[in-house]
Specification:
Blueprint lengths: L2 E3 L3 H5 L8 E6 L5 E6 L4 E9 L2 E10 L4 H6 L1 H9 L11 H12 L4 H15 L12 H9 L4 H20 L25 H12 L4 H12 L4 H5 L6 E2 L4 E2 L2 E2 L2 H8 L21 H10 L7 H9 L8 H16 L1
Parallel strand pairs: 1-2
Antiparallel strand pairs: 2-3, 3-4, 4-5, 6-7, 7-8
Helix pairs in contact: 9-11
Length: 332
């Protein structure tokens, strides 16, 4: 059962962050209003409601972007909109138009991440573009999915199609979800190859990289504690060395020292070709991974390895302290 109390800014701002998973709290003034608190410190208002016999959790928005009074006053509106059955549209509409609307209204990603998703949709789902969404059958979808190589990619497209059709149902364009009849392919989870001994060898191999730009970028994968796409697209204007932050994200001491020693030429911290930022230096990384004797190591493996050991803290300075402690422990 969720812990219940009167929601107010002071209490919500100082809620303890769970070490794993998430916690749920409930408003005593409006018991239907609840809040998730994740182990990353994200706080989101939501409502529970049974719809067609299934328990649904409807997210209202993140706190403090959404104010408490706004969340309370919109509980009835949200419940009413969920309870209403969508009117079935008789007008035909193409799958592509529904997909475009879905991307605008439901997908919240960075510009680079959204562009990557759009490229995947065009590559894998284009045979469905010109078809009316009302006419698409489970056989049509099975045929499209069967031509996608790789279990992981196929399952991601399966999830995306299921979500798009769910969106179409909610908006009254179709009455059933043909994707629900198609099972996913069972994936064999990849075992991440990085160990403490391997990490030591990796650090030595990175420091031997001849290119200063690549060497610094690879070291920031260790010191930055964010995915490679964010590291490689860093801009000088977003760095605040006085507050030790990048876009409000705290920087470790090692990251600050590394960045301050780099030449601040141009827009990008890690410039690539044709005036753009570094994107995917896979050949250079392969060379480093081979030198570290971990040939199947990916850049994401480094991020996952470190993030599993990093202790989260909602306070920026405490989080920075945890970063520094972890870096000191792995480098020493």
């Amino acid at each position: 059962m969720a812990h219940q109390f009167l929601f107010n800014p002071y209490i919500l701002d100082n809620l303890p962050i769970p070490s794993t998973g998430f916690d749920v709290v409930q408003d005593s003034a409006e018991p239907r209003l609840r809040m998730y608190i994740t182990n990353r410190g994200v706080k989101s208002f939501f409502i529970r409601k049974r719809v067609n016999g299934k328990d649904r959790r409807i997210i209202i928005g993140k706190y403090p972007d959404i104010e408490i009074n706004y969340a309370r006053t919109h509980v009835l509106d949200v419940l009413k909109s969920v309870s209403e059955k969508p009117k079935i549209h008789r007008k035909k509409i193409s799958f592509r138009k529904i997909a475009d609307t879905y991307l605008i209204k439901r997908v919240r990603r960075s510009q680079d991440s959204l562009a990557k998703l759009v490229r995947s949709i065009i590559k894998h789902l284009s045979p469905l573009f010109l078809k009316n969404i009302q006419d698409i059958t489970s056989e049509d979808i099975s045929d499209v999915l069967s031509k996608i190589e790789g279990c992981a990619v196929r399952n991601r497209m399966h999830e995306l199609l299921r979500s798009i059709f769910k969106f179409a149902i909610e908006n009254g364009y179709v009455s059933n979800n043909p994707v629900s009849e198609i099972p996913k392919i069972k994936e064999h989870r990849r075992v991440r190859p990085l160990t403490r001994a391997g990490f030591d060898r990796l650090l030595v191999a990175i420091n031997k990289e001849k290119s200063q730009n690549l060497r610094a970028a690879f070291l920031m994968l260790i010191y930055g504690f964010v995915p490679k796409s964010k590291i490689f697209s860093m801009q000088w204007r977003d760095l605040n060395f006085n507050r030790y932050t990048w876009k409000g994200h705290p920087l470790s001491d090692a990251a600050v020292v590394l960045l301050q020693d780099m030449p601040q030429n141009g827009k990008w911290v890690f410039p690539g070709r044709a005036g753009r930022h570094l994107t995917d230096p896979r050949m250079a990384w392969k060379r480093v991974a081979m030198a570290a004797k971990i040939p199947n190591l990916t850049m994401d493996d480094v991020y996952k390895f470190l993030n599993k050991q990093l202790v989260w803290a909602s306070d920026r300075e405490s989080f920075r302290l945890n970063m520094n402690k972890l870096i000191d422990s792995i480098i020493m």
